[in-house]
Design brief:
single chain, alpha/beta, Arc Repressor Mutant, subunit A, 3-stranded parallel β-sheet, 5 strands, rod-shaped
Length: 221
């Protein structure tokens, strides 16, 4: 028994007539009759009672009709699911977010747009820092990640797409004595420290911030 036998059987059962079923299937009646006869021989029981004007199902035929419809429907669902998965329209994606990247205006907009386009894809958020998420993408435990200034040197098979450029600023109190001369910057920098996140958490942005502070004479790191 194969799917062709089941499709032919369902067509005859629903049409209750071999000629109309053959027209529906786009084949000649003799081959259709032969396929049904082979199916009955394989199952060891008649599936139809031949009438003067058509056919009717036997009790085993009625049982087979219900089963055949379920099998054919499942086959169509499976084909659709496989095609959707191949097009990336179903499945599960683990999305990493470094720090407060989700609050960057473009990020939630991209996530929401993806969910609207692919409602059958499950998105699972993963929180972490930039180096940890880059490692996770490298080893496959995270599929894609939104990070800030990722250290890509030394990583294989990692592709980075620039999403947005942001300006890094140092915020000072309104009464801060902003240095005006090189000598004053030097004196002030010896009295002030700049506290940043550990370099291992944000290596690029932390290093850049400390360098700017030293150049500006605002602090020593």
């Amino acid at each position: 028994m194969d799917l062709r036998h089941l499709r032919y059987f369902v067509a005859v059962a629903e049409e209750r007539h071999f000629t109309r079923a053959a027209e529906r299937l786009g084949i000649k009646q003799p081959p259709l009759s032969l396929q049904i006869k082979q199916l009955e021989q394989e199952l060891g029981t008649p599936l139809f009672r031949r009438l003067t004007r058509g056919v009717e199902l036997t009790e085993p035929g009625t049982l087979l009709l219900d089963e055949a419809r379920q099998i054919l429907a499942q086959v169509e669902r499976t084909k659709a699911n496989v095609r959707n998965r191949a097009r990336g329209e179903t499945g599960h994606i683990r999305v990493g977010f470094a720090g407060a990247t989700y609050f960057q205006p473009r990020v939630p907009g991209l996530v929401q747009a993806y969910r609207r386009r692919y409602p059958s894809v499950v998105l699972s958020p993963v929180q972490g820092n930039t180096p940890g998420l880059v490692d996770a993408v490298q080893n496959g435990s995270v599929d894609v990640a939104f990070v800030r200034a990722p250290p890509v040197e030394g990583y294989q098979e990692i592709t980075v797409h620039l999403l947005v450029e942001e300006t890094t600023r140092i915020v000072l109190p309104s009464n801060h004595p902003q240095p005006a001369s090189a000598s004053r910057r030097s004196r002030l920098s010896r009295r002030r420290r700049l506290f940043c996140l550990p370099v291992c958490m944000r290596p690029v942005s932390t290093t850049a911030s400390s360098q700017v502070a030293r150049v500006r004479g605002l602090a020593r790191y």
